[in-house]
Amino acid sequence: MTETVKEVIVLDDWAVIRGSGFETRDSEGASGTYKWIILSKKQPNGKWESVWDIFNDVEDIK
Length: 62
Hints:
Layout: E1 2-11, E2 14-24, E3 31-42, E4 48-61
Antiparallel strand pairs: 1-2, 2-3, 3-4
């Protein structure tokens, strides 16, 4: 699996991270691409915690 971050937007204690990925899905070599978005909130201890993690398949390659 390979994932690439395309964009990071930070506003106060919130961050949106957008990216895409590619993975091989089975032993026969079928693979696909997908896009994803993660919404994170900064915690009082300074660490970021994921609130939402959303993805969808873009294309299957056979």
